[in-house]
Structures are given as structure tokens and as C-alpha cells.
Design brief:
Elements (H helix, E strand, L loop, with lengths): L1 H18 L5 E2 L2 E2 H23 L5 H23 L1 H15 L5 E4 L5 E6 L7 E6 L2 E7 L6 E3 L1 H6 L11 E5 L2 E15 L2 E11 L7 E3 L1 H4 L4 E5 L2 E5 L1
Parallel strand pairs: 6-11, 7-10
Antiparallel strand pairs: 1-2, 3-4, 4-13, 5-6, 8-9, 9-10, 12-13
Helix pairs in contact: 1-2, 1-3
């Protein structure tokens, strides 16, 4: 039983190191210190289990167990050493399964970027965060501004009742009206743009919120290659 507990500690600790390496700390400790503590605790448990149970195990079984634990330890060390590669694979898999989820990537020049995959309808739809709420937004280079539907504006706690819908806008439903307002920040993955003007469409004027050019123009660059949109902050 103690052996399985030690194994569980190693596995959970290893996964924690791989998945949270970007933060640099785990449970208030530096990643390297956390790794050493996890390995030490697991080793002490294994030694203790071997000490108390050695009378019941043959030498051959003890050797087999030692070899197995050594292989597990080496595997975890290898996984931690290549954690950035594994994290990249993880992000690619998640992005393929959920195209609207922005994935952090590294450009050829070594800088950070966000990648979004084209959806089944051929559009680039991202999940942006405004006021702590996630909003699906169509990337639209034909829209001069970020435009939220009334439903999405209410979701992110924008007071729609106090807005003046006097700005004419062209939408898929024809000519409609929108109101100007301002938000403190909008985030697409790790890209955060602050203090930005937006429009809120009147009820029924817009079915899909738009991520327009006043967001895209703040980026260093954005480009489309095949089914991938890459935004560089």
C-alpha cells in the first residue's frame, strides 16, 4: 500500500510540474524545490516500505521492484526535462479539439503568439474574456471595432439600459444601431489589450459578437496561414 502511495505522489507531482511550469511556482514553492521535495517524500516512503516489508520479500522481488522504481523515476525526470515540449503538444491537442480556444505558441523568431484554428464553417472564432466572462467572438477584419451583441454585453455585465444606440452599423441582418462604450480590458489567451472602445449592438441587430480592427491593429502583427490565424502581441 505504501509503495502505491509513493507511486501516486510521484505521478501527481510530475503532472503538476509539467502542466504548471509556466507559473514558475507550485503551492508557493519554486518548481525545482517542489520537484526535489516530491522525489524525497516518495523515496522515503519506498525505503520505509522496503524496510518494514523486507522480511516478506525475496531478494529477486526486491531487485525487480528497485529496477521498476528506478525506471519510473528516470521517466519522470525525463518528462520534467522536456516539459515545454509536452506542454506544446498538450496545447496543440486541445486546440484541435476546441478550435475557438486560443493556444499560446512560439513564433519562428522566438516570440510569444496566439494561434486559433478555423472552425467547420470556415471562420476564426475566438473565446475572449471580458470582465471575467468568456465570450465567443468572430474575428472580422471588415469590422472597424469590437462589437458585442446585446446578449454578450449583458453576460459581461455591461449596463445595456444606460447606453444610447445611435451609431449605424451594417450587419448580416441589415442596417442596425449600436452604442459606444469602453471596457477596461479584453483578453484573447495571453494577449490582453486594455482601455479599449467597443460597440454594443441593439437587441436583435447582431447574432455573433465581432473582434474587429481596433483590437487587431493593437497587435504587432496578425496573419492567416491555411487554417491557422496567428496573432502576435
Amino acid at each position: 500500500m505504501i509503495t502505491w502511495i509513493a507511486l501516486g505522489i510521484l505521478i501527481i507531482g510530475g503532472l503538476g510540474l509539467v502542466l504548471s511550469h509556466d507559473a514558475g511556482t507550485i503551492a508557493g514553492m519554486a518548481s525545482d524545490d517542489f520537484a526535489r521535495i516530491v522525489a524525497a517524500v516518495a523515496l522515503l516512503l519506498w525505503i520505509g516500505a522496503g524496510f518494514f516489508g523486507r522480511a516478506r520479500f525475496s531478494a529477486f522481488k526486491a531487485i525487480k521492484q528497485a529496477v521498476a522504481w528506478t525506471a519510473i523515476a528516470l521517466g519522470l525526470v525525463l518528462a520534467y526535462s522536456y516539459r515545454e515540449d509536452f506542454n506544446g503538444i498538450y496545447h496543440r491537442i486541445v486546440t484541435e479539439l476546441n478550435p475557438s480556444r486560443p493556444a499560446a505558441v512560439v513564433t519562428e523568431s522566438g516570440g510569444d503568439a496566439v494561434q486559433v484554428l478555423r472552425d467547420a464553417a470556415g471562420h476564426f472564432v475566438v473565446r475572449a474574456e471580458i470582465n471575467g466572462s468568456s465570450v465567443p467572438m468572430l474575428v472580422d477584419t471588415g469590422a472597424s471595432s469590437i462589437v458585442l451583441s446585446t446578449r454578450d454585453a449583458e453576460r459581461v455585465r455591461i449596463g445595456v439600459e444606460g447606453l444610447s444606440f445611435i451609431v449605424p452599423v451594417q450587419t448580416a441582418n441589415g442596417t442596425g444601431f449600436a452604442a459606444r462604450t469602453r471596457i477596461a480590458a479584453i483578453a484573447v489567451g495571453p494577449i490582453v489589450e486594455r482601455d479599449i472602445d467597443i460597440l454594443v449592438a441593439s437587441e436583435g441587430a447582431l447574432n455573433q459578437s465581432l473582434l474587429g480592427m481596433n483590437f487587431l491593429n493593437r497587435l504587432t502583427s496578425f496573419s492567416v496561414s491555411g487554417d491557422r490565424l496567428v496573432m502576435v502581441p
